[in-house]
């Protein structure tokens, strides 16, 4: 619910065109459960356009991460390296499978995982590295991929925020063995709730399809590859209904328009707020390898935690909803007692200083100018 005195919300879901038409078509096709025509259309789109060996729609980005964790066959004591500055699902998926979580700090220049930290944390028990492309901005994948092959690890991209983002000529989500995308309402491309498991290494494809269909070989059966379908492995109900897939199809059809607009909006903020840099306020740093990004988030790094709180209040008083982001997982109420590693100062810094400004398709340039004016006015006081 948007509070009634808020004129500019932080996010607003967007209908790109044919969502309702697609849903009506799914209803008249007479099959609403998963893996129907719209699900298969989405899969084909991702396999052809993105080049994934296999794409499987899921109920959420969380579910896609949980499938990735299941595919690793983790044993007790196996270590998974991941950032502390991320959403709980990045960690929960692996904790649910009994992994030992090894939290890495963010880079000093931007909120993504610091590759030098990963190198420091690898042990003989390390099985996987999970990177998060924060704000749709690529992690340093050349360096991280070389660590992965040197130590024979599995690389998983939490690309929940990173649809239509690139690392040079490669799309994010195509670089790791596995990747998870989210189509939550707050993401650039949305289905309300939804996600995608992307499989780049074919060794995982067959089992992924079984986990996805409650541990059965139903998908192979429906293609006529087996005479009956049976219980063949563990699994769960990871697949979304056709209603979700129908909605998502419409958004995917419009992805280029959505990305283009968001990038325009991101650049409006970047230009309008550039004068703050001389005061010591930081704007997002996009490393040269992280082009092109998808403008998922525009953030400021305030000079102190106190200043950030005052700026949030100032904007709120002017009917603009700006919000902070992740609190560190390694010092969270749930995990702090289990955390035995060193302090992660950069993670704590982003948790305390980062402020996200409203960014959604229907946000107008006038509204953006008004937001930027209020931020500048705050710093002129
Ligand atoms: C949104 C998000 C998720 C979870 O995706 P859901 O679809 O909400 O389950 C996981 N990781 C990151 C980094 C996210 O931003």
Automatic annotation (TrEMBL):
UniProtKB keywords: Pyridoxal phosphate
Coiled coil (residue ranges): none
A GO biological process held by the record: polysaccharide biosynthetic process
Recorded superkingdom: Bacteria
UniProt modified residues of type N6-(pyridoxal phosphate)lysine: 187
GO MF annotation, one: dTDP-4-amino-4,6-dideoxygalactose transaminase activity
Residues annotated as the enzyme's active site: 187 (proton acceptor)
PANTHER family, per database record: DTDP-4-AMINO-4,6-DIDEOXYGALACTOSE TRANSAMINASE (PTHR30244:SF34), TRANSAMINASE (PTHR30244)
The family this protein is said to belong to: Belongs to the DegT/DnrJ/EryC1 family.
NCBIfam families linked to this entry: ECA_wecE, PRK11706.1
Stated name of the protein: dTDP-4-amino-4,6-dideoxygalactose transaminase
Species of the source: Hymenobacter mucosus
């Amino acid at each position: 619910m948007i509070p009634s005195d808020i004129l500019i919300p932080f996010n607003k879901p967007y209908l790109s065109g044919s969502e309702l038409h697609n849903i009506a078509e799914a209803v008249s096709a007479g099959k609403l459960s998963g893996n129907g025509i719209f699900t298969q259309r989405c899969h084909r789109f991702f396999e052809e356009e993105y080049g994934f060996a296999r794409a499987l729609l899921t109920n959420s980005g969380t579910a896609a991460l949980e499938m990735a964790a299941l595919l690793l066959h983790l044993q007790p004591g196996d270590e998974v390296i991941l950032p502390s500055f991320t959403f709980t699902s990045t960690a929960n998926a692996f904790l649910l499978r009994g992994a030992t979580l090894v939290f890495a700090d963010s880079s000093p220049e931007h909120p993504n995982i610091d590759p030098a930290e990963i190198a420091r944390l690898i042990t003989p028990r390390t099985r996987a590295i999970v990177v998060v492309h924060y704000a749709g901005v690529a992690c340093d994948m050349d360096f991280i991929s070389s660590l992965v092959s040197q130590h024979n690890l599995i690389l998983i991209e939490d690309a929940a925020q990173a649809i239509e983002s690139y690392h040079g000529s490669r799309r994010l989500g195509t670089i790791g063995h596995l990747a998870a995308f989210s189509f939550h309402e707050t993401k650039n491309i949305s289905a309300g709730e939804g996600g995608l498991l992307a499989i780049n290494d074919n060794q995982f494809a067959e089992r992924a399809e079984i986990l996805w269909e409650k541990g059965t070989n139903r998908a192979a059966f429906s293609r006529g590859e087996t005479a009956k379908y049976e219980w063949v492995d563990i699994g769960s109900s990871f697949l979304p209904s056709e209603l979700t897939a129908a909605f998502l199809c419409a958004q995917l059809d419009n992805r280029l328009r959505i990305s283009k607009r968001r990038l325009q909006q991101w650049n409006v903020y970047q230009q309008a707020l550039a004068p703050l840099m001389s005061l010591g306020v930081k704007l997002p740093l996009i490393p040269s390898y992280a082009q092109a990004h998808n403008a998922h988030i525009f953030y400021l790094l305030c000079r102190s935690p106190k200043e950030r709180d005052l700026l949030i209040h100032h904007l709120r008083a002017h009917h603009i909803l700006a919000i902070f982001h992740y609190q560190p997982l390694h010092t969270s109420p749930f995990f702090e007692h289990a955390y035995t590693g060193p302090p992660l100062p950069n993670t704590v810094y982003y948790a305390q200083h980062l402020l996200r400004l409203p960014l959604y398709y229907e946000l107008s340039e006038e509204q953006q100018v008004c937001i930027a004016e209020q931020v500048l006015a705050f710093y002129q006081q």
